[in-house]
Design goal:
The chain is of the alpha/beta class and 349 residues long. The protein has 14 helices and 13 strands. The protein is 40% helix and 17% strand.
Length: 349
């Protein structure tokens, strides 16, 4: 199968990273994969070098008809679906949660793509049945949950009760949607020394990031331990996650994202929000803990309980690992994507 793939950018973040992992897996299975760049910012994205190392050809000019199919990654790439103009079959991989509706409202999505795409792939049933149902023009839909590689790191055992603070990590771009303010507000309700936090993620200068920086300084002045790391590689993030007790992910808008899946693969306890995609993929109190969106009080309460009941971390972590093995491995994800791509390439929409 000869595949052309295109995304809105190629930085080391959720949607481009998901695309890279699938494409690298397809190359390893003998498929010919080309990644289209525009010669601008996409040409210098941090995933370009790993893509080349994985055997993915990077191209900046193509004849679409030379390919068996085109894979367009993210809602914004609806414009690429339209540009193909039916010269090749197109799979449109839509990964955006609710903020995708904002992109539509802002005129950043070409509506014709909902009709022209040969197949639309969503990571969750909720996107297909509820979020984007009013835009869909056909039933050529596949739902394929995201997957993450099996961890190569051996996770550290949970810190025993009474032997140091509960080790927390929050991973994600510093923005209101990702809920760093909720994490910090929850920590402010705990005693200094009860938890410590590693905060990972890009922080462009915005009023929100200034607010977060000020809150970190305030909490550190009160004796709390918070370590901002800024942007780190995926391997570095996994290393921090493997040494942590709890992934804190109080996101206000997300799918069951790769960070949560990676935590499950490492048998870590994740605390995240009870958004529809999380409810669809997780079991509250069994393989994760779910809290209402924006509820710092609930998050603080769970952290307080876990700091006093360390064995529960192992119980939830073990169940999370079982759920990962059953539903969220990268191999299963690539298997499902490969099947859909084959079907579309062979003319079965």
């Amino acid at each position: 199968m000869k595949l052309l793939a295109v995304s809105h950018d190629y930085d080391w973040s959720g949607a481009p990273l998901a695309l890279y992992r699938v494409l690298a897996g397809l190359v390893a299975r003998g498929h010919e994969v080309h990644l289209l760049v525009d010669g601008g910012e996409t040409h210098t994205g941090s995933l370009i070098k790993p893509a080349l190392a994985a055997g993915i050809a990077v191209v900046d000019g193509v004849a679409v008809g030379d390919y068996d199919l085109v894979l367009c990654n993210t809602l914004v790439m609806g414009k690429a679906v339209v540009a193909v103009d039916q010269r090749a079959p197109v799979v449109w991989w839509v990964l955006e949660p609710v903020f995708g509706l904002d992109l539509i409202d802002q005129g950043k999505v070409d509506f014709r793509a909902f009709e022209l795409a040969t197949r639309i792939v969503f990571p969750t049933r909720w996107q297909a049945s509820t979020l984007y149902s009013g835009f869909l023009k056909h039933d050529r839909i596949s739902v394929i949950p995201l997957g993450a590689p099996a961890p190569e790191l051996a996770p550290a055992p949970p810190s025993p009760e009474g032997d140091g603070p509960l080790r927390l990590v929050h991973i994600g771009r510093v923005e209101h949607r990702k809920g760093q303010d909720v994490t910090l507000e929850a920590i402010s309700k705990l005693a200094p020394g009860q938890v410590e936090l590693d905060l990972l993620g890009a922080a462009k200068p915005t009023p929100y990031t200034h607010e977060i920086k000020a809150k970190i300084n305030e909490l550190c002045a009160r004796g709390h331990v918070i370590r901002p790391h800024g942007v780190v590689s995926n391997d570095a993030a996994l290393a921090v996650l493997s040494r942590s007790d709890v992934l804190v992910a109080p996101t206000r808008d997300d799918l069951l994202n790769l960070t949560v899946v990676e935590a499950m693969g490492l048998a870590r306890c994740a605390i995240t929000t009870s958004l529809p995609p999380m409810v669809e993929g997780l079991r509250d109190g069994q393989d994760a803990i779910l809290i209402p969106s924006g509820d710092a009080e609930a998050l603080s309460g769970h952290l307080d309980k876990l700091s006093r009941d360390r064995p529960r971390l192992s119980t939830i972590g073990a169940e999370a690992r079982r759920s990962y093995e059953a539903h969220f491995t990268l191999r299963a994800h690539i298997d499902a994507m490969e099947r859909v791509l084959h079907e579309v390439a062979q003319g079965s929409s």
